[in-house]
């Protein structure tokens, strides 16, 4: 991976966060007079843009005006493809890194199918712990009257982009009053968690696709690992 690919990915991620902040300001401006007081809190509009771009769509905030609906239509039309491209790019890079680790750890295992199952199981288990169980514990601690199962369910629904809307993080008074610094930081942290967490299923899809269709994802990582070992020797 050269500097240009890293720069491209950094620009994609930066453009997403800029779209959240700018889109949130525009949506708040459009909906301010027509909606309830929640939209008058800037970071509620910001988080609305996050749920649109990631297609989570909790439904806790929806456009109430014609202008808001038109804005959301064009906003989604632009940002969702950028989100998909970003996730695909990150998923590919992570798959390459996993391929490199696979070569170092499972290099002596000759059976391709066993290696794939081992890699998939480890990636799946690591993701469950990092992106579901740990966030569930955090949600349980921060969200008012949430059980661990409810925290886990919210994390799952978020990363699966199901967004049932029965449990929406950041709405509890325990986190802080609307507009408080604690609530603002928590909302931005939620957006970062959503984006970062969605790279996990994206990586899983790349690994499975590489295995089924013989793409050069993890194979590239394996080749890089072999070159590294050759240089070391």
From TrEMBL:
Membrane-protein topology: Multi-pass membrane protein
GO BP, one annotated term: stabilization of membrane potential
GO MF, one annotated term: outward rectifier potassium channel activity
Subcellular location: Membrane
UniProt keyword annotation of Ion transport present: yes
Transmembrane segments: 6-27, 39-61, 73-95, 116-139, 145-164, 185-208
Keywords: Ion channel, Ion transport, Membrane, Transmembrane, Transmembrane helix, Transport
Domain Potassium channel per the UniProt entry, residue ranges: 17-94, 128-201
Transmembrane helix is among the record's keywords: yes
Lineage top rank: taxon: Eukaryota
Pfam families in alphabetical order: Ion_trans_2
InterPro entries found in the cross-reference section: 2pore_dom_K_chnl, K_chnl_dom
A Gene Ontology term for the protein's cellular component: plasma membrane
PANTHER family with a match to the protein in the record: POTASSIUM CHANNEL DOMAIN-CONTAINING PROTEIN, POTASSIUM CHANNEL, SUBFAMILY K
Family as reported in the entry's similarity comment: Belongs to the two pore domain potassium channel (TC 1.A.1.8) family.
Name of protein: KCNK6 protein
């Amino acid at each position: 991976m050269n500097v240009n690919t890293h720069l491209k990915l950094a620009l994609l991620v930066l453009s997403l966060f800029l779209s959240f902040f700018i889109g949130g300001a525009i949506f708040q401006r459009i909906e301010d007079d027509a909606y309830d007081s929640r939209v008058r809190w800037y970071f509620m509009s910001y988080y609305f843009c996050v749920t649109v771009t990631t297609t989570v769509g909790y439904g806790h905030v929806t456009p109430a005006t014609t202008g808001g609906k038109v804005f959301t239509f064009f906003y989604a039309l632009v940002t969702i493809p950028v989100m998909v491209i970003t996730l695909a790019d990150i998923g590919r890079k992570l798959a390459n890194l996993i391929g490199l680790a696979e070569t170092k750890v499972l290099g002596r295992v000759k059976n391709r199918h066993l290696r794939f199952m081992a890699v998939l199981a480890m990636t799946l288990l690591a993701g469950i712990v990092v992106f579901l169980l740990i966030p569930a514990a955090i949600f349980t601690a921060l969200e008012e009257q949430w059980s661990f199962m409810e925290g886990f369910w919210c994390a799952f629904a978020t990363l699966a982009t199901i967004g049932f809307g029965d449990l929406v993080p950041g709405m509890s008074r325990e986190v802080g009053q609307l507009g408080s610094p604690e609530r603002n930081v928590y909302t931005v942290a939620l957006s970062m968690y959503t984006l970062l967490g969605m790279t996990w299923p994206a990586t899983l899809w790349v690994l499975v696709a590489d295995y089924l269709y013989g793409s050069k994802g993890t194979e590239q990582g394996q080749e890089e690992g072999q070159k590294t070992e050759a240089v070391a020797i």
